[in-house]
Amino acid sequence: MKRKIKFIITLLMVSSTLFVNAQTIEQGLNAIDNENYETARRIFLNYTRSNPADAMGWYYLGNNYFFLKRNDSARIAYTQGTTVNPKGAACFTGLGKTYLNENKVADAQKYFDEAKSLVNVNKDINIAVYLADAYINSENPNAEEAIRLLKQAENISIKDYRIYSLMGDAYKILNKGGEAVTAYERSGDLNPTNARPYARVGMIWNLARNYSQSKTSFEKALNIDANFAPAYRDFAELYFNTGQFDKAKETFTKYLELADKNDETQYRYAQFLFLTKDYSKCLQILNEKKMRNPTNMNLFRLVAYSSYETGDFTNGLIAIEYYITNATTKKIIASDYEYYGKLLLKAGSDSLGALNIVKAIEMDSTKSEMLGDVAKLYYDKKSYGTAAYYYDLKIKKSVKPIIQDWFSLGRAYYFDSLYVMADSAFKQITLLSPAWPIGYQWRARSNLNLDKMDSTAQGFAVPHYLLLVEKATIDSVTTVKYRKELMESYSYLGNYNTLKGNYNEALEFYAKYLILDPDNADVKKTVDAIKASKKSTSPK
User: Fold this and answer.
1) What CA–CA distance (Å, rounded) separates 53 from 62?
2) d(CA 249, CA 251)
């Protein structure tokens, strides 16, 4: 509703005080245009004190209270206007608007009928403007009725840009973007010095995700009036929607320079600060607003998020718990559970933290990456079974699991002594990346733990170590890169063949080992022992 105000400036045309008090009235209306509502209120209060007999001054004051959502104060101002000029239609429509705001349609209609009785509705465009304004800007709008009235006014004149500005507002309420754009463009053609229609067109194109056309419209609005604050606000939203958060913050900052800094605009600015990772400044603004308005749950949400990002986990947890406790269930989103979970993890409440992160993922599957963080936390604490549970859950919830997911899962199973399951996970690595030696190494290790290193050994690890050797000796570069893995392979293969009495094969593997580690005394002793054994058993 706040944005539908530019057209009011044209009501000056019907005020008898237009030329006498133009500067004061114009300043007040410009303040409204730029959403400086408190400034406008002061201007119109001063004006009505100096010109108490001017009903239009009271009308403007009433409208300003209406934008401030102070319905009772608006009604008082409109009533004073009808008192000083019982023949003026404007304030009667204003009174009707206050009742329409309360959804008291019959009471509103009584004042609308009174206003219409004071003019010739077939010749007076202003009454259509007043009434359409009431139907459009009410908390209970009736856009269809506004359009009907404006089409009647169009029969009187097709050259009054107010008609088409309001018509655009009405069509926008009805989500008829095409008709709204046409009406706004007509208004702009009739009054090319007015930035509002082009800013409104930019907003509609933004909602339609036609960002190029939206940008063009906002730029046109600001070329007409570089100080038209709402254009900067909505332009910032365009940048936000296209992921240009730095530009969004910069543009919204310009808006704040031109508009009053109320709680609503400051909160939106804080959101832009958060998105551009200026968390400290975001908190500075939020903490001021939180103290003034402790019932605004959104403030506590963003305080929690920003506190986490700045490392203030204690206050972040206080804020998010206050929010979770007091916000309505339908208002809680996946990111709330995400940050609650992360803050709990930082506080050492692992189980509860993990539970909330799972809640976040259930609401938004794109957040499944967080399960990796939970799993790693348990892995680092050597709670390998729990870590494996979360790594497995992450894989199941991922559209396309990556090698690292399988590797982490395999290692968690391995260190939890679940070697069959570990081998199954590492097998996925060899399938996804058959040229990578490490997958074969961990399959070999898993199978080694399923075997015995004595005369009964079945050699479960043998094929995997042989594949590791094959993949790691493609060229000299890979041989150097995987030197340790190759040493592990040659050592096992040498030992296994020794156990099985395959001494020639054992000596071949030990020889390859000693090329990589020529000073290994243990391997040398084993080689000497095998050779001695072979000599003693050879025929004479």
Assistant:
1) 15
2) 6
pLDDT tens for each residue of 378-417 = 899 899 999 999 999 999 988 888 899 999 999 999 999 9
Q: Can you give the pLDDT at residue 121?
A: 87
Within a domain: 451: no
Within a domain: 329: no
d(CA 207, CA 197): 15
Return the pLDDT at 365: 80
Name the helix (H) or strand (E) containing 161. helix 161-173
SS3 (DSSP) at 244: coil
pLDDT score at 14: 36
Across the range 136-160, mean pLDDT stands at 93
Assess if residue 10 is contained within a domain. yes
Domain that holds residue 167: 1-194
User: Does 452 fall in a domain?
Assistant: no
DSSP helix/strand/coil, 455: coil
The per-residue pLDDT for 1 is 41
- What is the C-alpha separation between 195 and 176, in angstroms, rounded? 21
What pTM was estimated for this model as a whole?
0.61
CATH number of the domain encompassing residue 94: 1.25.40.10
User: Cα–Cα distance between 32 and 518 in angstroms, integer?
Assistant: 86
Say if residues 94 and 78 touch (Cβ distance below 8 Å): yes
- Which amino acid is present at 417? S
Report the half-sphere exposure of 518 (CA within 13 A, side-chain side).
1
The rounded percent of the chain whose pLDDT value lies above 70 is: 94
Give how far Cα 112 sits from Cα of 93, 104, 106, 145, 151, Å: 5, 12, 10, 12, 18
**DSSP for 495-524, written as a single string:** HHHHHTT-HHHHHHHHHHHHHH-TT-HHHH
- Picking from 152, 133, 151, 129, the residue whose alpha carbon sits closest to that of residue 142 is 133
Task: Count how many domains the chain has.
Answer: 1
Residue 96 vs residues 3, 160, 170, 522: alpha-carbon distances, Å = 21, 24, 18, 100
Rounded to an integer, the average pLDDT of 82-101 is 95
End-to-end CA distance of the chain: 109
pLDDT range class, residue 276, cuts 50, 70, 90: confident
Q: Which residue from 118, 63, 64 is spatially nearest to 86, judged by alpha carbons? A: 118
3-state secondary structure of 120: coil
Segment 150-177 mean pLDDT = 94
Q: What backbone phi and psi angles, to 5 degrees, belong to 363?
A: -85, -30
For the stretch 425-456, pLDDT in tens is 999 999 999 999 999 999 999 999 999 887 78
